[in-house]
Amino acid sequence: MTLVEPQTDEYTAPDGWVRVCALDDLEVERGRAALLGGTQIALFLLHGPDGSAGRVHAVSNLDPYSHAHVISRGIVGTRQDVPTVASPMYKQVFDLRTGVCLDTQGKEPKSLHVWPVTVDAGHVLVRWDE
Ligand code: FES
Questions:
Q1: Which DSSP string corresponds to 62-123?
Q2: Using CA atoms, how far apart are residues 99 and 74, in angstroms rounded to an integer?
Q3: pLDDT tens digit string along 80-90?
Q4: Is the CB of 1 under 6 A from ligand 1?
Q5: Residue 2 CA: which ligand 1 atom is closest?
Q6: pTM: predicted TM-score of the whole model, two decimal places
């Protein structure tokens, strides 16, 4: 597992936000894991509408079905217009925007925790609620 560097000396995130990494640390449609206060989060940079870099989503790296920290290694895709990630373990598919499981593979519905993300001057910030 590759963890990104959470903080830098030269940048102070606004109140309530934590800098997770630089936008340049992320690859489009390749998840990265980051450790924030003992919690693993999975970051996903999606394609923009014109093929440019688009939005960043942050969800729990913990797969609620397998209880393994694997979501950052999941497969990014779409269902209709919904950006999704499929767990590499048992292939449940989650909405990256809400964390809701769209395909439970016959199991009980479980969701990923999601955190609001913004990008400020090339820094990826997560609104940290715990
Ligand atoms: S060792 Fe990094 S996700 Fe499992």
A1: B-TTT-SB-GGGSEEEEETTEEEEE-TTT--EEETTT--EEE-TTSPP----EE-EEEETTE
A2: 13
A3: 989 999 999 99
A4: yes
A5: 2
A6: 0.87
